[in-house]
Amino acid sequence: MTQENTRSRLFRTGKRGGTRGSRGTQGSRGTRGTRGTGGTGYGETRTRTRGLDSSQLRRVRLRRWWRRTKRRIGRAQRSVTHAVTPLGWFAIVVTAVGFVLGITASWIEAWFVAIVGALLLLIALPFLIGNRAYSVGIVLDKQSVVAGGEAHVRLHVENLGARPALPAVAELPVGPALREITIPFIGPGQSIDLDVVVPAPQRGVIRVGPLTVARRDPLALLRREVTWPEKHLLYVHPATAQLPPNSAGLVRDLEGVSSRRLTDSDLSFYAVREYAPGDAMRHIHWKSTAKTGTLMVRQYEESQTARVAVLFDARREEYRSDEEFELGVSVAASLSVQAVRERRERFVVSAWAPGRMRPSIDGLEELPSRDPQQLLNAWSELEAAPEGLPFEALARGLAHSRRPLSIVAIITGAEADTTRIRRAAVAFTPDVHVLAVRCELHAEPRAQRIDPLTMFTVGALGDLPQMMIRTAL
C-alpha cells in the first residue's frame, strides 16, 4: 500500500450518506464542496478533511471544538443569568466589593461582609439542584362569562417522578395581573387540583397562562423557572337585555309583508305589464293576454324578511364616559344577538380601529355573527376606534353599499345631537326603517318619531326592551 493511500485512509473522517452539496468549480478537484449535514447538529456543516495534512486537520478539529464549547458556554451563561434574581445580583456585587476592599485595604468589616455574602450564596445553591417532574394542565370551567361575573381555573398538577416534590410557587398570568399559587408537597405518582378564581369586572378578553413554576431559596437570591406554554382565552361578554321576540321596530316587515320594491318573481301580486324579451313564460297572465291581444306578464311586490343592519358608533368622543360607552356596546350587542337568535339576515358593523382586521372601503368593520357565541366574542374584543369615521359618514357608506336592507339600527352616545342623527338617517331610501338609539347614562327613557326615523334615548340597558314593547312603530 502506497504512502499516499495510507494517508488518505487515515484522514478520511467524513460520513457518506448526507446530501451531496455543491461540487465546486470544474478543474479544482480538491474543492468538491460539502456532503450535507448528515450526522451534525445545530446547523453545523461537516467539512471534508480528506487530503489534509496533520496541521490542517488539527486546525479543523480545533475550530469544531471551539464552536461546540462556545455554544455550551453561551447556554450556561444564559442559565446562570436567568437564575440570579435582582437581590442575588446585589449580593454578588456586595460580596465582590467586600473581597476587593478586604484584600486591598485590609478592612475586617469588608472581609466579614464578603464571607457572609458568599455563605448566603452557597446556602442558596442546593435549593436549585434537581428538577421537579411536574405535569401541569390548565382547565377553565367556561370559555366565556358576562361582565361582572367570575370564572374558575383548575390547575391539575401531577408528580411524574419517583421522588416526592417539595412545595413550590407557581405564577399564573391572568390578564394584566400575576397570580402566585402555592403548590404543596406532592408524593411520587400523586396529583392535586388547585382552584383559582378569575374575576371579570368588565368587558374584554382575559388571557390565562402560561404557567411558570419557580424554585427559589428562602432569601430569594437565586431562582429557577420551568414554564408550560399552555394558554387560554376567557371572553368577558357585555351585558345584554332579552328583547321581546318579533317586537315592533325590529321585525316590522316580517312574515312576507310586501315592500315598495317591484320584482318579477315573489308572492305578493301587484299588477301586469307587457311581455319583455327574457321574461319567464310561467309568469304570463293568460286572461289579460286574451283581453288585450298582447302578451302580458305578472309583476310582484318584493316581500322581505327583515334584513337588519346594526351600526355601532365606536368613537370614544361621542360618549361622555367609559360607562356610557359600555352601555352603547350592550345595546348594540342586544339588538344584534336578537337578530341572530331569530335567524334574520344581519350585517353587524362598527367603525374600524387600527390593529384589527383591514377595513372596507367605506370604513366599516364587520363583526362575525355566525352564532350568538361568536358574535358576543367579537363584542368582547371590540375597543374604541380613535381614528374611526363619524357615524354619519359610516351611515352614508352603508346606504351606498347596495346591501338589501330593511331595518338599520344606529347606536351612538349622548354627544350626538338630533341634527346629526337625522342627517345619517336621510342617507337611506324611504323603504328602509331607521332606528337610532342614543345612549345617555342615567337619562329618562323616551322615544321620538322624527321623520324619517325613530329615536330612542336610553339611560340604562333595562330601558331598551320596555320601550320596544310600549312603542308602536
Description:
α3 (86-105) runs antiparallel to α4 (108-124) and α8 (391-399) runs parallel beside α9. The radius of gyration is 37 Å and the shape is elongated. The protein starts with a helix and ends with a helix. A seven-stranded mixed beta sheet has the order 16-15-14-17-18-20-19, with helices on both faces. A four-stranded antiparallel beta sheet has the order 5-4-8-9, with no helix packed on it. It has 473 residues and is of the alpha/beta class. It contains ten helices and 20 strands. The relative contact order is 0.08.
Share of β-strand residues:
25-35%
Determine Rg (CA atoms, Å). Answer: 37 Å
Number of strand elements: 20
What is the helical fraction, as a range of percent? 25-40%
* Oligomeric category: single chain
Mean pLDDT across every amino acid position: 80
The number of helical segments is 10
Task: Give the spatial strand order of the biggest sheet.
Answer: 16-15-14-17-18-20-19
Reading the helices and strands in chain order gives HHHHEEEEEEEEEEEEHEEHEEHHEHEEEH
The N- and C-terminal alpha carbons lie at a distance of 108 Å
Low-confidence stretches: 1-47, 248-267
- Major sheet description: 7 strands, mixed
